[in-house]
Amino acid sequence: MSDISVLLLKAADTHVDETWVRSLVQRLAPAYPQVLHVAAYNGLETREAYIYLTVEPILGGAMCMSRARAHLADVNPSLKLVDLNLLLCLPGASAGRPAPYRYTVETDVVPVAEKELNEWYDNEHLPGLAAVPGNVLARRFRSSSGSPRYHACYDLESSHTAGSPAWLAVRNTPWSGVVRPMFTNTKRTLFQRVCSYDYHRVLAEVR
After folding, report:
1. CA torsion 90→173→149→134, rounded to 10°?
2. What is the CA 201 to chain-centroid distance, rounded?
3. In a domain, 1, yes or no
4. Within a 10 A sphere around the Cβ of 25, how many other Cβ atoms?
5. d(Cα 125, Cα 131) in Å, to the nearest integer?
6. Is residue 202, in this structure, part of any structural domain at all?
7. Total count of domains within the chain
8. DSSP code for 31
9. Do the domain assignments include residue 161?
């Protein structure tokens, strides 16, 4: 298993704002010194928030997760913590452009199809979606525990990118038609970014 790359905090039944995120960062600081970056998103059509903490991979792992979970339970027990290991990262056709939206696909897959899921994602699906105009960055992750196990996220210029003809063409390939029916526990969500910061800069500002 690769080292943990991202700690994802999931907040259910709520939206967050920049002040809330800054306060959370300050309270998490004692147990999260290896965090490099924080980015928060609210669901556009759902009442939930995802906060991504990018971690120095060399410092990630079981000890990091154990310490983080214990501290988070004291800081905000309503947040769910998910460890994400980076599997693939591809610059999009619109790399370098502002990306105020993030589209995520979280899924499990029937065990017999796991190898094919990974081959499809790595060789066709993620490269195909990365090449769609309006896609700034495409990444996929795997969690070492919990469900859904796989997490793909696409940073987008527009909330309409994920429904564009070019995007739908990639989703509707013959190989996609074979793999997608083997998804289980699938959750698709479009988010709008609340804030995105260098972690240590935010700590310096709130002190």
Report:
1. 40
2. 22
3. no
4. 23
5. 10
6. yes
7. 1
8. G
9. yes
| In a domain? residue 13 | yes
**Residue written as token pair 């469900």:** 147
Q: How many CB atoms lie within 10 A of CB 187?
A: 11
Tens digit of pLDDT for each residue in 116-152? 999 999 999 999 999 999 999 999 999 988 899 999 9
* Distant-in-sequence, close-in-space partners of 195: CB < 8 Å, separation ≥ 6: 18, 21, 38, 39, 40
DSSP 97-162: S---EEEEEEEEE-GGGHHHHHHHIIIIIHHHHHTSTTEEEEEEEE-SSSSS-EEEEEEESSTTGG
Query: Tens of pLDDT along 182-193?
Result: 999 999 999 999
Q: 85: domain range?
A: 6-206
Q: Could you tell me the CATH number of the domain that includes residue 50?
A: 3.30.70.100
- Closest alpha carbon to 170 in 206, 196, 145, 134: 134
195, amino acid identity:
C
Phi, psi of 118 (to 5 degrees): -65, -40
